[in-house]
Amino acid sequence: MKDNLVQKYNVAGPRYTSYPTVPYWDNQFFTVDRYKETLLRSFKESNSTEGISLYIHLPFCESLCTFCGCNKRITKRHEVESPYIETVLREWDLYVDLFSEKPIIREIHLGGGTPTFFSSENLRLLIEGIFQRSGKAEDFEFSFEGHPNNTKTEHLKVLFDMGFRRVSYGVQDYNEEVQLAIHRFQPFENVKAATENARNLGYTSVGHDIIFGLPFQTVEHIKTTIAKTQELMPDRIAFYSYAHVPWIKGNGQRGFKEEDLPTAEVKREMYEIGKQLLAEAGYVEIGMDHFALKSDYLYKAVKEKKLHRNFMGYTTSNTKVMVGLGVSAISDSWSGFAQNVKTLEEYYKALEREELPLYRGHILTEEDETIRRHILHLMCRMETAWEDKELYFGEIFEILERLKEMEADGLVKFGKNKLVITEKGRPYVRNVCMAFDVLLQRNQPDTQLFSMTV
Q1: Fewer Cβ close by (within 10 Å): the C or N end of the chain?
Q2: 58: number of CA atoms within 13 Å, CB side?
Q3: Tell me: the pLDDT tens digits for 55-109?
Q4: 3-class SS at 120?
Q5: How far, in Å, are 6, 15, 44, 87, 357 from residue 354 at the CA level?
Q6: What is the rounded distance in angstroms from the CA atom of residue 388 to the CA atom of residue 386?
Q7: Ranges of each domain in the chain
Q8: CATH number of the structural domain 366-442
Q9: Hey, what long-range contacts does 67-70 have (CB within 8 A, 24 or more apart)?
Q10: Does residue 187 sit in helix, strand or coil?
Q11: Contacts of 37 by beta carbon, 8 Å cutoff, 6+ apart
């Protein structure tokens, strides 16, 4: 029966880090001035109460990992660091100049690329530069992504002194054959050292990312990787499905053959076994693909119904404004999205002209905002309701009709003006969200835009 469900629901679908999803943005209606209006409105409403979030994209890596779908620039030349930091701070200045008051930052996340490609001194200059013209919220949360092979104690110490308390390390898989296929060579000893260094310095949340569905990966590899992970007991684990989208990401995801990838049925077995092993070790499933110990504040956010999801993934900081800095970064004003240009050359030229480096985006309609709330509820709470006027919209009954088959399969339950994803349905949360995605339903793509849901 389980295999039949996998076959039935393993379709191409979004991961819903935003709604509308990027392929359905209305770029023709979008203008930078319209986006600025939404940004300033949300900033004025929320800066003094909840603060704002910052995502800073640091794109450089010394080598290419063939599983990676991120925007990156491969180089071993570290002289690229200073010009990039200076340009990011110039971009931040343009945003601060727009705002009517000093921004209060509640959340910072450094992503990439490889943030720890940068020297600790340059990371210090970056964060100090950000706070020259901004303040910190009382309940701020600063985090960064570290590569276990090059995250030095000095990186951890400098960022800790700047207020960072959370770090996540990309582990992926400990098997050497898998590491060779994805070009990601890192022994367990390196991950152990990076994890223990962070804890010894006082980091309160250390996360590990594990991927299932990688080339040459087997169920036994997943068992071994999770067993090794249990030796370190990170506070959070992102255990997610490899998104194979070589038609989008180019040569980076063509370092192996399609037949080298596990089947959908094997991937689902990997997920089920991994989930069981993590539960036995004391981890609780949070939203989609994320697990946390009960001592971690991500778990506490779930219990208090404060979990939020944005372009950075799951977060405890629910801010209306998220400013994305750096090449390809996406900003979110709640009623608008805007993405920066994707190449370094374009990014530098825009900032030389003292212009925000935005090249596309979407201004949300009233319907968009309503559906966005439903999808956020499904992703963060595994349920949604439409009793309130704000959450009711005309197509809700068509959506429920689309979900009848999932109800028959035991994946969702209907209540009075309410929908709940069952425990059995958790692996198919993306499929449930797709039923609510009216833009996708109205305009099914002719070509594959998204990774498979399983």
Answers
A1: N
A2: 29
A3: 999 999 999 888 887 889 999 999 999 999 999 999 999 999 999 899 999 999 9
A4: helix
A5: 50, 34, 23, 10, 9
A6: 5
A7: 20-363, 366-442
A8: 1.10.10.920
A9: 67/172, 67/182, 67/184, 67/211, 67/214, 67/242, 67/253, 68/249, 68/252, 68/253, 69/243, 69/245, 69/248, 69/249, 69/252, 69/253, 70/111, 70/112, 70/113
A10: coil
A11: none
Q: What is the pLDDT of residue 250?
A: 47
What tokens appear for 440 in the block? 């996708």
End-to-end CA distance of the chain: 15
> Token pair for residue 444?
């099914």
pTM over 0.85: yes
Rg (CA), the chain: 21
Rounded to 10°, the helix 429-436/366-381 angle is 160
- Tens digit of each residue's pLDDT (9 = 90 or more) over 124-178: 999 999 999 999 999 999 999 999 999 999 999 999 999 999 999 999 999 999 9
Q: Which residues contact 11 (CB under 8 A, 6 or more apart)?
A: 431, 434, 452, 453
Go through the chain and tell me how many residues it has. Answer: 454
CATH fold label, 20-363: pyruvate-formate lyase- activating enzyme (3.80.30)
| Mean of pLDDT over the chain | 92
The structure tokens listed for 279 are 């539960």
